Amino acid sequence: MSDLNLKHIARLARLHFKEDELKVFEAQVAGILKLVDELKEVNVDGVEPTSHPLDIKNVFREDEVKPSLPIEEFLKQSPRSRGRFFEVPKVIEDK
């Protein structure tokens, strides 16, 4: 990748670099592109795509049906309630 192209890409991204920084980045970008070219040569026929390198399993416990607290216990925690419902401030205005 030429210095001119890297300057152009930096300008498009609104990044400002000094000339010596561009030289360092140019070498790094060239190395990355070389690695990408190497990866393109790898034969992946028959290899299933994965979303994660590790075989992750669900680590959560099974759901169990358990009795809930009575609604009255929940309503005691609310500053205001009306019947069996929580009362909250109005957030939508009428026109």
Note down, in words, how this protein is organized.
The protein has 95 residues and is mainly alpha-helical. Helices cover 40% and strands 4% of the residues. It is built from three helices and two strands. It has a two-stranded antiparallel sheet. The longest helix has 22 residues, at 19-40. The chain is elongated, with a radius of gyration of 30 Å. It starts with a helix and ends in a 9-residue tail after the last strand. 0% of the residues are buried. The mean pLDDT is 87.
Shape: elongated
Roughly how many Å apart are the termini?
A: 60 Å
Strand runs, count: 2
| Beta-strand content estimate | under 5%
Instruction: Please tell me how large the radius of gyration is.
Output: 30 Å
Structural category is mainly alpha
Outline of this structure?
This protein is mainly alpha-helical and 95 residues long. The chain has helices at 3-12, 19-40, 71-76; strands at residues 81-82, 85-86. It contains 3 helices and 2 strands.
